[in-house]
Design brief:
Layout lengths: L1 H32 L4 H16 L1 H10 L3 H37 L5 H24 L2 E7 L12 E5 L10 H13 L4 E5 L14 H5 L7 E4 L2 H5 L3 H8 L4 E2 L3 E5 L2 E5 L11 H7 L9 E4 L13 H10 L6 H5 L4 E4 L10 H8 L6 E5 L2 E5 L17 E7 L1
Length: 394
């Protein structure tokens, strides 16, 4: 009961802040653009109100029924969220310029400056959309002790946070597949959030996923977004593909241990230590790669879902103590999107204590955090790049 009350309180506060920010944008636009006509002011007001209300209804409608109309509505709402962020930042800049002008007794032509700032926000958002649609290849080189000869010089592709759904559709996955196949990977590892969790025709992704080519297989662990759909739905789709799900399991591929730990929200019982330290399935003397969606410790406390979410998103444990203790060679994670949008890149860096992106080495332990292949929410990448990670083993 308390969790429901907290959730409702959060929604009320969030919507209130959202409306307040939209009202600030509206009043600033009217003031700086010099709009005096009552009819135009009313029109702009109701457009802003509709846009402020658009996201939550678009999500609900998309979950109820997927068609061209609901998909387009959701796309517009998501694009607006990103554009709104930069329009709001531009509004803040306009007030700073106006205040400085008042202070020195020489207020510039705010209409011209306002037009320039708002156009810049639109241009920056458009650039972010373009960056999001075309993931780049991120090559990294990883040295693993006692690597079998069969793996030396081989390539592993990591996909993370692809977020397939209403926005990143089959065409997007087809481009990803073509790029991955061009790298001729020996193994493909998908570290969660393959599906977006907001809905969409998931059946349409079976074919492009099955067109992925690799000699040693494709393995997957769940992320938080698979649970938003209800785990049964995405796992049913994955079951129709060549992907093998590792649900707290270990497989050995030509002498290399691949360890898959499920996202803790969906697997409430903590089995990480039991799997790696007590079951005998894990051999610390053999080279190992751990797949875990978040760049955090795999040994999570068994708490209620709300506490687990708060810990995962706002107070993550980035010490990776169990993985280091047991001699894991490489952990592959994602989840952070490296902030995705500017200025959130600084927020994720702060929250994850620097473990929000890139390759990190601590003695014999290594972790690589991908910025992700797709996007969530605004289909923009103004702070980081969408990427397909190509890992060369040595």
């Amino acid at each position: 009961m308390m969790t429901i009350i907290k959730f409702i309180a959060f929604i009320v506060v969030f919507v209130g802040l959202l409306f307040g920010a939209h009202y600030l944008l509206y009043t600033s636009f009217i003031r700086f653009m010099g709009v005096s006509d009552p009819g135009i002011r009313r029109t702009v007001f109701w457009i802003v109100v509709c846009l402020a209300l658009s996201f939550f209804p678009s999500v609900i409608l998309l979950r109820i029924h997927v068609n061209i109309a609901t998909t387009l509505f959701y796309l517009i709402a998501c694009i607006w969220l990103g554009l709104f962020l930069y329009l709001l930042m531009g509004t803040g800049l306009l007030w700073v310029i106006f205040g400085l002008g008042k202070g020195v007794g020489a207020v510039p032509n705010m209409r011209i400056i306002g037009m320039a700032v708002f156009l810049l926000a639109v241009g920056f958002s458009s650039y972010g959309i373009w960056r999001a649609r075309f993931p780049v290849v991120k090559p990294i080189s990883v040295q693993i002790q006692d690597l079998p000869d069969t793996w030396k010089g081989k390539t592993i592709v990591q996909l993370s946070d692809v977020h397939l759904g209403a926005i990143n559709g089959p065409g997007f996955m087809k481009r990803v597949t073509e790029t991955v196949n061009s790298l001729e990977p020996d193994l493909i590892l998908i570290t969660g959030d393959l599906f977006d969790g907001m809905g969409g025709d998931l059946q349409s992704f079976i074919e492009p996923i099955n067109n992925l080519k690799t000699s040693k297989g494709i393995y997957f662990v769940t992320g938080n977004h698979e649970g938003y759909l209800g785990l049964e739905k995405p796992l049913d789709i994955i079951d129709k593909t060549q992907i093998k799900v590792l649900d707290d399991q270990i497989v050995e591929v030509d002498g290399l241990q691949i360890i898959g730990i499920s996202f803790p929200e969906h697997n409430r019982k903590n089995v990480s230590r039991q799997l790696l330290n007590e079951s005998g399935a894990y051999d610390a003397k053999k080279p190992s790669i751990l797949m875990y969606h978040t760049p955090t410790s795999i040994e999570e406390s068994n708490t209620d879902r709300g506490s687990q979410q708060a810990k995962t998103y706002w107070f993550p444990d980035t010490r990776m103590l169990l993985a280091k203790e047991l001699g894991i060679d490489l952990q592959l994670s994602g989840h952070t999107h490296q902030g995705q949008l500017f200025p959130f890149i600084f927020l994720t860096r702060l929250i994850y204590k620097g473990y929000d992106y890139g390759l990190h080495q601590v003695n014999g332990f290594q972790i690589f955090i991908s910025s992700g292949t797709g996007t969530w929410g605004p289909p923009m990448r103004s702070g980081s790049r969408s990427e397909i990670v190509s890992i060369r083993l040595h």
